[in-house]
């Protein structure tokens, strides 16, 4: 069974969820003579299969460093050199085969090449399928912070082949579920019920529960980015838990998994909601319990606070000196907290400090 979830707007496309989806690729790259396939070393065989499925005259495989090590301007520059050497034109297509880090890089390489060529994420991780591959946010990291250089560049289509999850380590399945939990709190509480009912099933790549979770979270994201591609309003809710999460990732020099940092960030954001009287205790406490049921971290170093506060100031939701956070006014009722004082932030941090 194949599920097609539409993303609407100026450049509509489908997010395709199912198994054995390589046959979907040719229609997404119609008219291309060349396809570049960016992939990390561990997914070389998968990338070769995707290259064959593309059915074009020239396939240019480009191996990139794994995970966040690939999300750099130097790696992007090497990819552009390879596109140049292969004579990539505006009708050619960049494909990213991998998790969210690889597809963020592939999308950015495509966004900047000739000022924008088509790209297709062939997503192989939970975080990639439910979040990174959908919505056209592409980016690399720089020394100043996470995802600070990038572009909004929607893909031609998204392939979420659940077969890929068979080889994804359990730790990465759980990390991806942090983004699914985020979707549960900001928009679709049924997600939380499904995980709470049976966390082990939620993590089983062959089970129906994980598929339902993937589809539900994709629908949440597809709706939001259809309404607000460029994050001028509604899209900010997808950043729930990310203001602190990105600061933790930067402090850890991107050795922490994104989903782990976001898990801590979600508990912190829930605490901000509670302390400002906007979020009830039951919903605030539910953040920690559902995330911990998946084995996700909900605490971080007490001493780190003095590093994290300045790091949060480069968050893209900030406006001049005003920090802005996504908080909840209740379950599935996201809102913005603008300009909280430092004392409030520190008290919220105490809830995750160990
Ligand atoms: N653009 C967006 O809107 C958006 C949304 C969410 C996350 N992100 C970004 O996505 C990244 C997190 O995504 P991620 O967790 O997928 O990261 P990732 O790409 O680093 O993948 C995690 C690990 O899983 C491995 N992996 C991926 N698929 C595999 C498979 N099928 N089998 C075996 N190993 C596999 C990768 O090689 C890597 O080691 C972060 O960079 C984050 O900033 C972007
Ligand atoms: O799609 C969005 O919008 C998000 O915020 C989704 C996040 O899960 C994702 O990590 C995104 O890359 C964060 O974007 P940023 O603009 O805060 O860098
Ligand atoms: Zn994220």
From TrEMBL:
Q: Which organism is it from?
A: Actinoplanes aureus
Query: Which Pfam families would you find in this protein's record?
Result: DHQ_synthase, DHQS_C
The protein's predominant localisation is cytoplasm
The protein's Enzyme Commission number: 4.2.3.4
A single GO BP term for this record reads: aromatic amino acid family biosynthetic process
The record lists Zn(2+) as bound by 179, 242, 258
- Paste the cofactor note: Binds 1 divalent metal cation per subunit. Can use either Co(2+) or Zn(2+).
Gene encoding the protein: aroB
Q: In which pathway does it act?
A: Metabolic intermediate biosynthesis; chorismate biosynthesis; chorismate from D-erythrose 4-phosphate and phosphoenolpyruvate: step 2/7
Q: What is this protein called?
A: 3-dehydroquinate synthase
């Amino acid at each position: 069974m194949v599920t097609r979830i539409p993303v609407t707007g100026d450049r509509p496309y489908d997010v395709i969820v199912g198994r054995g989806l390589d046959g979907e690729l040719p229609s997404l790259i119609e008219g291309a003579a060349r396809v570049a396939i960016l992939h990390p070393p561990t997914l070389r065989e998968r990338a070769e299969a995707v290259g064959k499925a593309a059915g074009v005259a020239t396939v240019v495989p480009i191996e990139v460093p794994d995970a966040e090590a690939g999300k750099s301007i130097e790696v992007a520059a090497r990819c552009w050199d390879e596109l140049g050497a292969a004579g990539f034109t505006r009708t050619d297509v960049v494909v990213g085969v991998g998790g969210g880090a690889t597809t963020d890089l592939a999308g950015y390489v495509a966004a900047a090449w000739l000022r924008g060529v088509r790209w297709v994420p062939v997503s192989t991780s939970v975080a990639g399928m439910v979040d990174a591959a959908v919505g056209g946010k592409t980016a690399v990291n720089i020394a100043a912070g996470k995802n600070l250089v990038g572009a909004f560049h929607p893909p031609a289509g998204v392939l979420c082949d659940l077969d890929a999850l068979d080889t994804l380590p359990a730790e990465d399945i759980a990390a991806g579920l942090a983004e699914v939990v985020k979707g549960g709190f900001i928009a679709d509480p049924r997600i939380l019920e499904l995980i709470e009912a049976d966390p082990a099933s939620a993590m089983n790549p062959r089970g129906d529960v994980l598929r339902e979770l993937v589809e539900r979270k994709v629908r949440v994201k597809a709706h939001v980015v259809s309404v607000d591609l460029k994050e001028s309003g509604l899209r900010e809710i997808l950043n729930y838990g990310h203001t602190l999460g990105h600061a933790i990732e930067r402090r850890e020099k991107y050795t922490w998994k994104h989903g782990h940092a976001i898990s801590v960030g979600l508990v912190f954001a829930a605490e901000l909601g509670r302390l400002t009287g906007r979020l009830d205790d039951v919903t605030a406490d539910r953040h920690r319990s559902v995330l911990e049921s998946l084995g996700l971290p909900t605490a971080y170093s007490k001493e780190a606070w003095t590093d994290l506060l300045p790091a949060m100031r480069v968050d893209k939701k900030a406006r001049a000196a005003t920090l802005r956070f996504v908080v909840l006014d209740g379950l599935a009722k996201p809102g913005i907290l603008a300009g909280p004082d430092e004392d409030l932030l520190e008290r919220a941090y105490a809830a995750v400090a160990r």
